[in-house]
Amino acid sequence: MRRWLATASIMMAGVLSLAACGGGGGGGGGSTQQPAASGGKQQVEVFSWWTGPGEADGLAAMRKIFEQQNSAYSFFDAAVAGGSGDKAKALLESKLQAQQPPDTFQGHAGAELQGYIKAGYLEDLTFLYDELKLKDIFPAQLVDQISVEGKIYSVPVNIHRSNVLWYNPSVLKEAGVSAAPKTIDEFVAALEKVKAKGKVPLSIGSEWTVTHLLENVLLGSLGTDAYNALFKPGANWNSPEVTKALESFAKIYSYAGDPQDDWQPAAKQVADGQAAFNIMGDWAYGYFHNPPEGGLGKTSKTDFDWAPAPGTEGTYLWLSDSFTLPKGAKHRDGAVAWLKVAASKEGQDAFNPKKGSIPARTDADKSLYTDYLADALKDWSSNKLAGSIQHGVSVNQPWLAAINEAVGLFVGSKDVKALQKGLADAAAANAQ
Ligand code: GAL
């Protein structure tokens, strides 16, 4: 499956720089300094962007198991705040280029990881796959996304779904919308009805969430095969079908509320009944559902409900978070210990119910995945697959940066023609 991903291009050195990083972060504070040993224990610097409400809960659950099982090591949380990792990935790139890698970092399976592999940043993890018999445990098509020439370069911890329409049932009812819209046209009609009632029809977060919306509308409008074809060599981003999809995107985006700081405040508008709809990955489920210390403690089906994003039923727009072993990791043994926990059934079954994702392992304890997550497990095993744009599957980082730029310009100009040209140019410059 998706052989084309194996040809993802080398990440352009210097595209991302430290200067682009907002810095900060939760947990360990995104420190660029190597953590020192503490209390005789070797610290293991784990780099991600899971600092915010909802996301941090999953990491904390896996950290707990790591600490229980590894008395010789202590966990150093080097997470850098900012949904989708835009800020984290900029800092990471500068660390990798400076040969100051964290001991392990989160990278998306697919084109994003292929970029790190081809830049020579990662160690081959085949030894771990052999030792833990992981090839029997992870789906073959997923292992394909994290391999180059038969060598395997990361440990996937989960499968996330990008194409989820989150909605507030009471707001829909008030607006006279009787069910979650299944098509783009039904969606536009529902947005209009909500607007007439004075509520926010569609909540939106920071700029990357607009690209997230775009990938969903492209899939919903084009259909799965035509969407997947966009990332194959010679794809036509100038087609009338893409024009139509972008016009729908512009129409849908015209119903968006004021941009919120990140995905959490946008999702919260739905759960609080200020907004009707939000299209976001299923990390939003962790945030809605987790108890108040980390999440919103909301009741599913009452405070929030879900459906496939309009036009995408039967397709899983997927992505997968995975952990790596960078070459030159200062605490390599500790990093390998972390990867073992990340690969384990126990680690994945602690992490995923909190993270709002389903496990990458095929032998997880299904009874732990209830409510939204039971639907996700069912759909993952039966749906067609399409790869996320914003979250590393279908396009590499330089291509994503070019897409984000075109989307950023569109947010200001609302110019569909210019957006299509920007996307076509991005593909021409970056597709392999
Ligand atoms: C994705 C990541 C998810 C979640 C989301 C929002 O890129 O794969 O795990 O963190 O960003 O931050």
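^ beta-D-galactopyranose complex. The first helix runs from residue 55 to 69. The radius of gyration is 21 Å.
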